[in-house]
Write a structure and sequence with these properties.
mainly alpha, Arc Repressor Mutant, subunit A, 2 domains, 4 strands
Length: 219
């Protein structure tokens, strides 16, 4: 029973740290000080170390001998690789979502899309990036392909956390997201796959600046 409780706590810490990277509370290159995180999360260092191990496997942090843990900071070449993985895998998720989603799932997707639309209306880049992530993950969840979800839930955070600007004008992304939603709601796998592919190819084209700074235009 003690082991089960420990595993649950380590999983909660892992999810909390992952969320903090997504929302930019923890930024690329930042050192993760165990004592500070222990105090902030109200846990001992043991579940934090277990969470570090899992986050390192998902390429979200780096564990550097004799220096400690750091939020992963990627070179542009690495981000291209992550983008290429998205281009190959997320259209599959959209296709399978169109095949698998029931009425409740489609309603949930429309709700997440509405939150993205609201974020775009505010012009807040942080909110736009976070809601964009949740929109894409909702589609993968609807696919019921949980291996795909495990891969993309981390890879997409790596891209978002290393992205200071936006890779595409938000209104353009909004229109493309709506097309994806409509294709999935129509249960049209071919259209859903194509809409997602076109959307992601355009995003990769936006990766032109060496540090993805505010000089770029975002997802």
């Amino acid at each position: 029973m003690i082991q089960v409780q420990y595993e649950d706590l380590a999983e909660k810490v892992y999810k909390a740290l992952k969320e903090m990277i997504l929302t930019s509370e923890l930024t690329p290159g930042m050192k993760l000080v165990q004592e500070n995180l222990s105090e902030r999360l109200g846990v001992s260092r043991t579940p934090i170390l277990a969470a570090f191990s899992k986050l390192e496997k998902e390429l979200l942090i780096e564990l550097i001998p004799r220096r400690g843990a750091y939020v992963r900071k990627c070179a542009l070449s690495e981000l291209y690789h992550f983008a290429d993985i998205r281009i190959r895998l997320e259209p599959l998720g959209a296709r399978e979502a169109a095949q698998e989603a029931d009425d409740d799932g489609i309603a949930s997707l429309r709700t997440v899309f509405a939150l993205y639309k609201e974020a775009v209306s505010t012009g807040d880049r942080s909110k736009i990036k976070e809601s964009d992530y949740r929109f894409h993950m909702e589609i993968v969840k609807l696919s019921k392909n949980f291996v795909l979800l495990q891969i993309l839930s981390s890879f997409n955070i790596v891209v978002i956390s290393n992205q200071r600007g936006l890779l595409k004008p938000p209104l353009q992304s909004l229109q493309e997201h709506e097309a994806i939603v409509n294709a999935i709601a129509a249960k049209d796998p071919d259209a859903a796959e194509k809409c997602m592919l076109d959307h992601l190819v355009d995003i990769r084209k936006g990766m032109t600046h060496p540090d993805l700074s505010d000089a770029t235009t975002a997802t």
